[in-house]
Design brief:
Layout lengths: L2 H55 L5 H19 L11 H15 L7 H21 L1
């Protein structure tokens, strides 16, 4: 096999792999969207409980930020579930897979929905703890 034949064969394999990957990702997106649609209320309730817990732990010091993060997380769930007239359009494979994984975790009681909202809430708690340590 010469170099050109090897490149052609590699290109064909790459094309097949891209097609298969696209099919799998589309399947994941659809399943994630269906799951989110079925469990949206449970997920949103978990977000509210998590936000309430963090708000309580920080003695409402970051109430506005916590509320904003919680609302953004719920908006993301609605968008990915295809509700409120917004079709689900995750922009990449990570978004679709993350949404499916996040929905499964939240429905199981883990309250994992939107990675950015989770990070923001953790940052708020850590900042509050740092502030308490400085005050001591």
């Amino acid at each position: 096999m010469d170099r050109d034949e090897a490149r052609e064969k590699a290109g064909e394999k790459l094309g097949e792999l891209k097609d298969k990957t696209g099919e799998v990702l589309e399947e994941l997106r659809v399943k994630g969207q269906e799951f989110l649609g079925k469990h949206e209320d449970t997920i949103e309730s978990a977000i509210d409980k998590m936000a309430g817990f963090v708000d309580e732990q920080t003695k409402r010091k970051y109430h506005d930020k916590i509320e904003t993060a919680a609302e953004k997380a719920k908006t993301t769930v609605e968008r990915l579930a295809g509700d409120a007239g917004h079709p689900a359009t995750p922009t990449d494979a990570t978004g679709a897979a993350g949404a499916a994984a996040g929905a499964a975790g939240a429905a199981a009681g883990a309250a994992r929905v939107d990675a950015q909202a989770d990070v923001r809430l953790v940052e708020v708690v850590l900042a509050d703890r740092r502030d308490r340590d400085v005050d001591r």
